[in-house]
Specification:
alpha/beta; DNA polymerase, domain 1
Length: 226
């Protein structure tokens, strides 16, 4: 029986992936490390800001000292917040899905590679922050996806808040990228992929794949956990 759902954020709750792409290129352009949209989605989308920058350095595409990584992340974050206020919004069907979960007493949390400030900006502007028992962001973990640390921390916080002992096998993770799905599977949780960012063929490691949250019933979630 399902007891909790843990959501990725970008590409699942809000359509801000394209804003991440645009703001990364804003801060990378002066260093000649501009990304194409195709390669961003194929190789970098699931990474935290710092991990993406570190990856570009490791690939020899970005020539900066490690000491400047945080500075670049801060510049990207400021640009992201500005564009998000102009362009970002909830993905269609999210609000109704959250309401259905709440009606069925299923606890909810977020585990994201985004920064907490970015996440809270959307949650508060959309007035949906009250649905979530826990929010785990990139700046709260040592290892980002595909490592399972974030998902396990989100569940730990939910359990602590309500004095429960929900097990990973009683959780479903909603993700849009293979990095997140790998993390969910490694954490021992069930995975539900939504094709907002990638085609179904690229999300085959998920236990279930849907095109829209309207397709997901409470019964489907229970069956995933059985």
């Amino acid at each position: 029986m399902i007891k909790a759902v843990i959501f990725d954020f970008d590409g699942v709750i809000t359509d801000s992936e394209i804003i991440h792409f645009r703001t990364f290129n804003m801060v990378l352009k002066p260093f000649g490390a501009v990304l194409s949209r195709k390669e961003y989605y194929a190789n970098y989308l699931g990474l935290s800001d710092a991990d993406l920058i570190k990856q570009l350095i490791a690939e020899g595409r970005l020539d900066i000292d490690n000491a400047k990584i945080e500075e670049l992340c801060q510049k990207k974050n400021k640009a992201f917040e500005k564009l998000l206020k102009e362009d970002g919004n909830l993905i269609d069907g999210v609000r109704d899905f959250l309401a259905r979960l709440k009606e069925n007493n299923i606890l909810m949390a977020i585990c994201s590679g985004a920064l907490l400030s970015e996440i809270m900006l959307v949650l508060e502007d959309s007035r949906i922050e009250g649905f979530f028992e826990s929010v785990v962001s990139a700046d709260q973990v040592k290892k980002g996806k595909p490592h399972p640390e974030g998902f396990l921390l989100a569940l730990k916080r939910v359990n602590k808040k309500h004095n429960l002992n929900i097990q990973p096998k009683d959780c479903v993770v909603v993700e849009d990228s293979r990095w997140g799905l790998q993390a969910a599977n490694t954490a021992g949780m069930h995975s539900l992929a939504i094709t907002n960012s990638y085609e179904a063929k690229e999300l085959k490691i998920a236990d279930k794949i849907v095109d829209h949250l309207d397709e997901v019933s409470i019964d489907m979630l229970h069956k995933l956990c059985n």
